[in-house]
């Protein structure tokens, strides 16, 4: 679906390239200034200061890549919120032949940005929740956390076609509840992909396109304006 249409492929790849460019530029900036940063924490001088400075430098080289891994998906969702909306629109247009689209306006753009920020915050929280669950009461807490995360992720990705139809939060929750196992299966697959360090960002456009495609198949053209069963 994504690769078969140039416009859809562009909306899918552009957010990934944009986020990757920002992170690569930030990483090279960090690499160029890491010595100065370490010196600002522990100045060189006596042998023990040099030893501490070396330890701080090593710690920074470990901490920064980990920070990139855990925040890459978050930043990608924030930066690419409006772009994923256009990806969802492109997929829906190809499947249904037309789309439910609000007129372009500042509130709609701000709404896309807010959805990107909220989705990113939820995704980051889910990653930390699953990680914390893996250290406590294994495997029960891990399974519970993963299941809840999958459902929330399914709801977040389905937000794109559902919000375009001006459905409130309760209506969107009802939509997901009526299709529990379908949304749960989609969420499990997407979450498993997103948990892959760095490479998980590739699953963001696939998840957005997949959720829109799922909605379109459940709501064919004859009743595309309705979200009910």
Question: Could you give a short description of this structure?
Answer:
The protein has helices at residues 6-41, 47-96, 106-133, 140-164, 169-178, 180-194, 203-218.
3D structure, described in words:
There is one protein chain. With 229 residues, the chain is an all-alpha fold. It has one domain. Helix content is 79%, strand content 0%. The protein has seven helices and no strands. It has helices spanning 6-41, 47-96, 106-133, 140-164, 169-178, 180-194, 203-218. Helix 4 crosses helix 6 and helix 6 (180-194) runs antiparallel to helix 7 (203-218). The longest helix is centred in the first third of the chain and has 50 residues, at 47-96. The chain is elongated and about 75 Å long. The two termini are 25 Å apart.
Which helices and strands, and how do they pair?
Blueprint: H1 6-41, H2 47-96, H3 106-133, H4 140-164, H5 169-178, H6 180-194, H7 203-218
Helix pairs in contact: 1-2, 2-3, 2-7, 3-4, 4-6, 4-7, 6-7
End-to-end CA span: 25 Å
Structural class assignment: mainly alpha
Shape: elongated
- Give the averaged pLDDT, no decimals: 75
Number of discrete domains:
1
Radius of gyration: 21 Å
Uncertain spans, ≥5 residues at pLDDT below 50? Answer: 222-229
How many helices in DSSP terms? 7
Largest sheet: none
Q: Order of SSEs, N→C?
A: HHHHHHH
Per DSSP E runs of 2 or more residues, the count of β-strands stands at: 0
Amount of helix: over 70%
Query: DSSP strand (E) fraction?
Result: under 5%
